[in-house]
Amino acid sequence: MILVLRALGVGDLATAVPALRGLRAGFPGRELVLAAPGWLAPLVDLVGVVDRVLPTDGLADRATWPVPPPEVAVNLHGRGPRSHRMLTATRPGRLLAFAHPDAGPAGGPAWDDDEHEVRRWCRLLHWYDLPADPTDLALRRPPATGSPAGATVLHPGSKIPAKRWPAERFAALARALTDQGHRVVLTGSADERDLAHRVAREAGLPPDAVLAGRTDLAALAALVADARLVVSGDTGVAHLATGYGIASVVLFGPVPPEHWGPPADRPRHRVLGAGHRVRLDRDRAGAEATHPRLAAIPVDEVLAAVGEAERAVRVSGAVAA
Hints:
single chain; alpha/beta; 5-stranded parallel β-sheet; 12 helices
């Protein structure tokens, strides 16, 4: 058994797809078990290489694991030492992880703060002579769920308030896109339903345009897979758009796109906002306001980026034809 730790969220899973596929290729015939939050299981299925999910919420200390000692444990979660120790508790035959002075392995590669999340985990595997293609980001198409096809998905929320573009600008964007013929829907978690309804009211959208809190993860993936366009902050929905090759505009603030953005060589995915990396304390995220770089992005600039992304889709379609 190969045990992989990635106990994080949607975007974190999406950026680990190339590494997970590399592990499948590097260890054919072994059971590949992913320690991750159980609610991610529908999306894990769309990666197509994981045999089962071991429900794991964050880095909760474990005295025991409900699995036998794995042949190999792989830390795709972080730099250590806590995540390293969590995997060491499984008594693996071998641990693949970044080097850390307070927790092995001594022979792992050095961590690099200034590195894109996708390439970080591919580099880790390359260090151990395992394959990993950082461009291999595509997700399997989910089963049909009855979600509206061809919708323009606006996702105004984020767990971290510093990553939220102002609601009134999302409303102005929704009005402008509706005037251009887009069918706009608003997504988000149940906790973000009030925010989505506020945007809908200010944009003049009908109540049924608000899908926040009404879609599970599988339905959200299906919605994005069949969407015309996605506009969001730096959050999981943006990574779903990349995984399905859907035109997108992603708004960045405290974290630069060079670390978490879509591939720079794919013009149908546009990024706005940039800056130096800012460490965010998730425990104090509620006290954060919209980051200044994000707050500085005007609606007109987003509309221009939408036009660029959609033109790139038309050009790529013409070339394919």
